Amino acid sequence: xxAVVTARRFEEIYFDGVDDxxxxxxxxxxRVSARAAYQEVIGGRAxxxxxxxxxxxVTEGVVEDLPGVLVIDRNVLEWRLDPRSETRLPLASYDAxxxxxxxQGYTSSLAADSLRQLGVWxxxxxxxxxxxxxxxxxxxxxxxxxxxxxxxxxxxxRNxxxxxxxxxxxxxxxxxxxxxxx
Length: 182
What we know:
This protein has helices at 18-27, 34-42, 54-60, 77-81, 107-117, 129-135, and strands at residues 47-50, 62-63, 69-71, 98-101, 124-125, 140-141.
């Protein structure tokens, strides 16, 4: 005897495929170029979150170690950046400017939209992802390239020597920060 499985009705499907899902996610984002993302990060106005898998970072390279650049695995992104989550990072805030980075800018759009749905309203992503970041000449460390040397103990932070951050920069709320507070 063969079991018959009835599929859900087509009308119940919300998106007309993944391309439609991506287009709808992007319609809710203010996507930024690699250069604009870099300027926001070095200005202390945003954090850049690389969600690429480790294997991809090893193969393609990484964003140079800068204050405000984090690596958070895609599968835990929402838990780390949702201000209500018990496993959130200390910097999780509804007002945080979070710029998500994947390899080519597809997964990051879906991830940034997911953060916005959780209330992190200033989340967005980099158009073209890490490939665009690298092509635009933004700071990267390529596979096989040595990391910058460790900073001497007691360095006061990025204002004295940019490559020696004492900690992640405090994220300054944007002009629209009045929407929600943490």
